[in-house]
Every structure is written in C-alpha cells, then in structure tokens.
Design brief:
The structure is a homodimer of 147-residue chains. Chain A is mainly α. The first copy, chain A, has helices at 4-18, 27-34, 38-50, 75-81, 110-128, 131-145, and strands spanning 54-57, 63-66.
DNA sequence: AAAAAAGTCTACTAAATCTATATGCTTTGT
DNA sequence: ACAAAGCATATAGATTTAGTAGACTTTTTT
C-alpha cells in the first residue's frame, strides 16, 4: 500500500499540474481543496521541492508550482521521492533494495522471481504515466460519468 | 510491501509443495530450514489450514501438508489469506476495499484510475502463478546459476 | 498408562512506522 | 513594520507488525 504521504503528494501534484504556467498556489489552498492536513502537506511539498520537482515562493502571493511540464513528471518518480515502495519485496526493489533476511540464496529464489515480474509490470505502467496523463484520465472520467 | 507473514507463508508453501503427496512436514523443520521464527510460523500455518489450503496431523510423525496439488494454489490466494495488500490503494482493492477518506468523488479520480491498471496487471500475474510455478522457476534458476 | 511429540489457541508485548501537530524561523511583498 | 507565506526540526500519538509466552489437545510410542 502507498502511504498517505505518497497519496497526498500525487493529489497535490495533480492540482499543481492543472495550474502549470500560472501563478503559484498556496499550500493552504491545496490542503483545503484536497482534504489534506495542512502541516503534513507542507512537509510533503518541501520534499518534492528539494527533489527538484517544485519551485516555491515565499511571502504574499507566494506558493508552489511545478518546475517542469506535467508531462515530464512520471508517477513512479513521485513514489520514489516520497518513499513509497514500488516493489512488493525489499529484495526486488530497484531503489530501496534490502536483503530479505530469511532468504539464503536470492538468485535462485522462485518467490523473488515472480515478484520481479510484478515489479517490472508495475514500474512499466507507473513510469509511462505522467501527471499530465493522470489529469487527462480524470478529464475522461468526468466526461464519461459526469461530475 | 508484503508483510513478513505473507513472505513466510509463501516460503512455507513452497516447501510443502515440493513435498506434496508425501508424509507431513513438521513446523519446526520448515522454520529452521527457512529461517522463520517457529512460533510465528505456527500461527501462519494455522491460518492457511483454516483457509483450507493445508491439512495438519498432530502427534509423533505429524505435521502439515498441502490439501491439493501445488498447481492448484495461486500466489494471489496466499496474499489474500495472509492479508497482504495486492492493490496499492485501498480504494482499488478488490478484496479489502476501503474508501480513501481524502478523496471526494472516487469514480472520477485519475490517480485511482492509474492504480486500477496496476492492480489488474499485478493480479493477472499473481493469479496465473501457482506454487508449482514458483517451484519450477526455482528449479530453472538453480540450473541457470548453479546452486 | 505414561510420556513424548506434535499441532491449537489466545493473549500479550515490543518494536517499528506512519500520521499528524507544534513551534519558531526566514523570506518577500505591501 | 507588518503580514503572508514557506522552511525546518522536533515530537507526540496512533496504528500495525513481528514476535513471544504459556497452557491445552490430540496422537503415537513405549
């Protein structure tokens, strides 16, 4: 399962993506629109900024904005920044690898082999999907099912 | 990430699968072979038994065994019994659905839409893969990379 | 019949992680 | 100077997970 942190990050980036190119948006606005605790969101946006995804502006009229086009930010990137585990096993994770301490010889582990396949399928989808795609999907869904 | 419980369950079922049709295997043997805390494994095997996957026999010469052929037990089944989350979002889970409390209209959520796709890909792989397949993979890996 | 070998069941504790809040600070615009 | 915003770190609270303990039941062996 993704953490709340990751989920909030995704939601926030979608909001910012819709607003790309315009004036920065305040944390408090995103927080209230998306029902995210403001202080928690602060930390999250800070992480995303420190990772180079967002710019920020202090003072009146300040806020956050995307540094690059939403089509250039993949969902998998966001999971990684916010520490969301993509792989279902630590020994299979590309970015947060850890030995499974119960497992002797990893290279011949059949269970691991299956979850490598799962990881590949997941990474494929999430790296091919950008924030812009998420926004597009949302639009399609609204058209399909009405607001 | 899968819980240790789920991982231990998978490991144990592989051992039992290799032994299908023969005399039952003792918890303590699986525990020491697979480096799993014995008491913890007890609970796990009990769950798997209560779910109808294993039979057990008490007393000397007792132990656990698979009820059906390892080709008839899918990996996804095991995750579900041991409570391992297949979906990455609660609002996307087929068997453990929960509303994302920050999300207003689920039907038009673009993030959700993406993770439905991820879930489908994952479920496909894990439901098409049986314990027998895991054993087969292990065998292939051993041949490929040596013991 | 007694003892030993194994699984059954429930409760509890400890550790880790996640979520959220608090507090004070810095920068920027008016 | 003041207010509006973000920056940074610390800490508390809640939840979940992992593991342990102990007493009980069934079956086999002696």
């Amino acid at each position: 399962m993704l953490s709340k942190k990751t989920r909030y990050a995704l939601k926030a980036l979608v909001v910012l993506g819709k607003n790309f190119g315009e004036a920065p948006i305040q944390i408090s606005r995103i927080a209230s629109e998306e029902h995210i605790p403001k202080k928690f969101l602060e930390q999250i946006l800070l992480d995303l900024r420190n990772a180079g995804l967002l710019f920020s502006k202090k003072g009146s009229g300040g806020g956050y904005g995307l540094v690059k086009d939403p089509s250039q930010i993949s969902v998998v990137q966001i999971l990684r920044i916010t520490g969301g585990p993509v792989a279902l096993l630590p020994c299979v994770s590309l970015n947060f690898y850890q030995k499974c301490d119960e497992c002797e010889n990893e290279t011949t582990c059949g269970v691991r082999d299956v979850f490598v396949e799962v990881r590949d399928a997941t990474v494929k989808i999430l790296s091919e999907t950008s924030i812009a795609d998420v926004i597009r999907r949302e639009k399609n869904l609204v058209e399909k099912f009405g607001l």
